[in-house]
Structure formats: C-alpha cells, structure tokens
Amino acid sequence: MSSETQPISAERFAFAIQDLPAENLYSKAHELENSIAHLERSNKTLQEYIDSIRSDTSLPESTRQEGDKDCSDAIQENTVVIERQKERIGLLKQEIERRGAKWHGGDMNGKANGSATEATSSSTAEPERNTGGRLTDEELRRQMMDRLGDDENDDEGDGMHL
C-alpha cells in the first residue's frame, strides 16, 4: 500500500454506506468476504513457504531462523487488511439492521453466501434461496415472470408490453 493512500476510517465508511440501497450493501459484503478468502489463502501459501525455508537443512541456520522477511511482512499486512474488512462487514450488517431489516450475509469466516458448501442442489419443488443479496437464474426468472405476468400461454406472442 502506498504511504500516500490510506483506507477510509470506519466512521467514514459507516457514513458513506448510509444512503446505499440494501442490495449494494450485500454486494459489498460479498466482495469483502471474497477478498478475505483470497487473503487467507495467500497467507496460508506464504506461511507454507516460510515453513519450507525453516525446515530446509541445506540452508544456513541463520537463513532458516530468519525465514523470509518479505513473506512474513506480507502476512502481517494481509492480517491487518482482513481485520479491517471484517470490521467493514460488521458495519454493513449494522446498517442493514439499523434499517430494521434482518442481516443475511456471509458467515464472517471468509466464506460468502453462495459458496459450494452452501449452494447444494435440492430435489424439492421449492428452489433454494440464495440469501447473499443475489438471485439465482431461476429466482430471477421467477421474479421477472411474477412482475411481468406469465404470458407464456398467451397466443399473441408479440413480445413484452411496456
């Protein structure tokens, strides 16, 4: 991160999101959860590399003890960013709840709604609800048909009327 550019404070972030539509708040939370997952994977990879240096007996003892300082620094920076992003997700949740709605965002552990572990296919008649602020294709189609009226059985077949 550049020394000239600093992230906005939590207070300014909370103020900035007050007028955003709820779907934007959920979208931002999903974006942050995705970023957290990537940073955590990166930290794991960096730590594995550091551990490999420390266990490499072909390297001098001083090198093994030190590990890789750049990787260690990157892990520390990523950890700070992860904590900041978790704080922002908390602020997004507070904003939704301030509006009187119920939060249905991610699980705050780097897994966003709609992940493979959560979005398993179901054989029930009711389609699974994706509650991460986004609709599945089937949900979108169903809602569009509800709003427009289901004209599939219409004999006219002359397109959508506005």
UniProtKB/TrEMBL annotation:
Residues 22-49 form a coiled coil. One of its GO terms (molecular function) is protein-macromolecule adaptor activity. Keywords: Coiled coil. Residues 115-125 have a biased composition (Low complexity). Residues 63-72, 126-150 have a biased composition (Basic and acidic residues). The keyword Coiled coil applies. Residues 51-77, 98-162 are annotated as: Disordered. Residues 151-162 have a biased composition (Acidic residues). InterPro entries: TMA17. It comes from the Eukaryota. The keyword Coiled coil applies. One of its GO terms (biological process) is proteasome regulatory particle assembly. This is Uncharacterized protein. It comes from Cladophialophora chaetospira.
